[in-house]
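Predict structure. Chain length: 429.
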Amino acid sequence: MLILFLPLFLILLLFGVPVFFAMLAGPGIMLFSEGMGRDAALMYRNIFNGIDSFPLMAIPFFMLAGELMNKGGITMRLVEFSHSLIGHLRGGLAHVNILSSMLFAGLSGSAVADTSALGSMLIPAMEKNGYTRRFAAAITAASSVIGPIIPPSGIMIIYAYVMEVSVAALFAGGILPGILVGLGLMAVVAAMAKSNDFPVAGEKATWRERGKAFVDAILPLMTPVIILGGILGGLFTPTEASAVAAVYALVIGLFVLRTLKFSELPKIFTKAAMTSSVVLLLVGAAMAFKTVVSLSHVAEQLAEWIITLSDNPLLLLFLINILLFIVGMFLDAGPAIIILGPILGPIFINLGVDPIHFAIIMSVNLTVGLATPPMGLVLFVASSVSGERVETISKAILPFLAVEILVIFMITYIPGISMWIPRALGFVS
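Prediction complete.
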């Protein structure tokens, strides 16, 4: 009967219970009803044990670095640099939106931060330039999912912690898939630009203007270089890299660019702490949830059932991608990874799928879910920033979701996309 904690958990979600409380209440009720009080106490102790982790300290530091970069006006420098490169193309501001998301991804690793920061600047600018507000909100939401794919990525840190794989290897594996998503979105914009007669944002910038924009953006652009170079070069761990990124953002904001004021720091630290606390509480609850998954043997039962469907890993990967896509419609990427990773990961690893490859498949799929109707988180953020209804954004985003789904299946069936860089760096033999 303990296995009934899963349907009870889903019922609580359907009734609007916050994910954190549903993840604790569902298993807790079933454990107490089965007379397993000691196991229930162990489950709740694991909330703290799940949070008390050195690797997870990277999450609040990366959150802080992103907040410092955004409040320090660094986001604007990235947008201006992107505009100087491709603003002259037809549909230029839409392309700028996507390229800015790709650059911003190397600073924060958060889709929500991307949508909020870039959307507040680019959605009004695109509307003024002749785009509809719903299209501007849709492209902002669609491109923001690149944030957790291109490193640093909070979602990949969580996956690495739960599944005990290398954070550095996951970061390396996310680079090409993130670039591929960005290029795919640009291809859709280019196709739509011809049929919809999208406006040109401005005249082609001279090389001198591009050089100036690059100089203005060079310090922010060095952030991912420092983070990835330090991690992949063995200079520091991902957690230490996150602290370095936060200090770097603080120094350039306060003393180099002087776009930050000391009086703004309390608000920035508070916002970063609040955002981080939500993520860490979910991690703690998910680790407690994982305890009951182990006690109920649901992972083993699900594995046996999946194997009965087919012994062809390619077909099973297709079915799991559909499952993950549906899950992503209703559940945030972080909790979904913590709940499903320990269940699905071992199944496909035993079928011969590389752990890093499966991690990238799962991370990208659930990240795209952030922009998927009806419950995609970034849709609501884009709605809040733009003032457009979620329903209208959801219709406008469909062409972009189609190309992102295509990229997911390319990543799934062409392992080299996610495995080439990790293999080249020696993370995979």
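Summary: Residues 2-30+32-424 form one domain.
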